[in-house]
Structures are given as structure tokens and as C-alpha cells.
Amino acid sequence: MQDAESIDEIVAAGYGLALPYQQVQRNRRKRDRMKQITAIVKPFKLDDVREALAEVGVTGLTVTEVKGFGRQKGHTELYRGAEYVVDFLPKMKVEVVVNEVDVERCVDAIVSAARTGKIGDGKIFVTNVERVVRIRTGEEDEAAV
Question: b or e along 84-106 (b: 16 or more beta carbons within 10 Å of the residue's beta carbon)?
């Protein structure tokens, strides 16, 4: 049986071969090696997380200001003598897309940079990325990351 690169070349050339299901799945798995890491962290930890990710080779990331709550369940604030319940707490959402082999190193870097040991330190989610396209060049998948 031909290797994945040869099969991709044949399909790209338009020969229209019918590939066995297992071969298609193997080829798909080879390409499904990108993961998105989404970390929700305390705002004052953002710079530490960014620096930690840079140290492990992450060259790009997206940061969004978000609000939410978990076990922390908000808090009460005093403003001009009146008490207010703040249900949603400010957090930072950091998103990076990396090769699957880099996931553990990135997750470890985020955990060590964001951990305070107190409730509300945040969460990390790792999900599969099916496809990436760089808009400017049309590069796809790992070349686009």
C-alpha cells in the first residue's frame, strides 16, 4: 500500500482512487495533530502565562477579556456605602494552537505560570483542531499555525 504522501498526491492529481476506510482514517489522523489550548486565568497572571508560553516556543496567541464564575461564585463589593454582589469575575482567556507533541509542555507552562494555589486560578481545555487556514497566504494546517 502507498504511503500517505503518495496517496495525497494521487488524490490531488485527480485520479479519483477509492481508498479503503482504514487508510482514509490513518491519513486523517496524521493531519489531526493540531490542538487548541484554551486557558482561563486570573488577569494579573496574563503576563506570566505569555512569558511561559514564549519560553516553550509558542509564537502566537489570542487573548480575550472574559467574565465568569465557578467555585469562586463571585464576591461582594462596597461602593459608596452600598453593598453590591459581583456574580461574574474578570478573567483572561488565552488561546493557542499547537502541534499535538507540544501540548503537554504548553499545559505545564500555563499551570506553573498561572497557579496561585487559591480558588479561582482557572482551567485549561485542550481540543482538536480540524483545519487552519492562513488568510493572507492560503497556507493550511501546521504551516498556517
Answer: eeeeebebbbbebbbeeebbeeb
